[in-house]
Amino acid sequence: MKNIIIIFLSVLFYSCNSKFESDLKIEKRDDSFDELFSILKENFIDKDSIDWLKFEEAVLLKNKISKDSAIIEALTLLGNRHTSYIKANGVHLRGKFNKSINKVEENCFNLTNNNLFKSLKNISYIKIDRIDNKSQMSEREYIFQNLSLISSKINSDYWIIDLRGNTGGAIWPMLISLLPFYQDGIIGHNVFKKNNFSTAWVKKEGSIFLGDQNQSEHYLNDKIYFTVNPKKVFVLIDQKTMSSAEAVVISLKSLSNVEFIGSRTGGYTTNNVDVSLKNLDKLRLTVNYMADNQKKVYKRGIMPNQKLCNESDILNYIEDQIN
What we know:
By secondary structure, the protein is of the alpha/beta class. The chain has helices spanning 2-27, 31-43, 52-62, 67-78, 103-106, 114-118, 139-152, 171-177, 244-252, 311-322; strands at residues 84-86, 92-93, 123-127, 158-162, 185-192, 197-204, 207-210, 213-214, 232-237, 258-262, 270-276, 282-291, 306-307. It has ten helices and 13 strands. Strands 1, 2, 5, 6, 7, 8, 11 and 12 form an eight-stranded antiparallel beta sheet that branches. It has a five-stranded parallel beta sheet with strand order 3-4-9-10-13, with helices on both faces. The protein is elongated, with a radius of gyration of 26 Å. 33% of the residues are buried.
């Protein structure tokens, strides 16, 4: 009888211990969050403005619902629309933010009747579209197409550069495409809050550089020395002009004869880096601001000189300026 009781107690202890271990396993912290928190604390653009203790508590609380909920909570608490998370299966997670687009700007969307501007006499027109690895043409083809159009109208006195609806993509092919418009020198910056460090975007020697690194040579074998010197450059922008397209807008601020028309840009005036995680997910992390050649940062987007949404109004305004 004594032996039976001992065996029963042993089984009971084992059962309870197993349940205790099981409960511990449920509450055990996911190691991938430790990696995520570490990366964010070290490299996030606004890391000094985050209360990381409260941040971690809130994220791990959401993890009890699901990991996706926790990631979305983290992205929301960061307060940065540009940072996102890409799961190994390709699902893209973003933070939850209120949309605060006023009605006038919203009405600017999709008003991109290229033929209307192409029909203008004595004014050359170029549409700078988004370019990335999903585009139908290669980045090299994209650059050649744009440079060919510019060179064919090299003597134009007036130019329209249309960046409406361009949500971003690869920055350097866009800047290289417009290389003939820039003067030699600094056309913009990457600005890091840490140590107030910056790296310049520079046009020199027929190429575009990031600091000392020649970006043009990744796409072109030859340098581009021809230039255009119009009397005026009109740049069309809207709320869907975002990210690297906003970098193009910022770079064009280096021109003395430029005017921006449309509505305020999207406000994604920062640069991202893709960080591969151990669980095969990817963090698209915002690490620095874009700034113009005077190091001015545009955190809420770039405002136009003339706020016009209706295309006929834009057309009439440009014609009045020329006449």
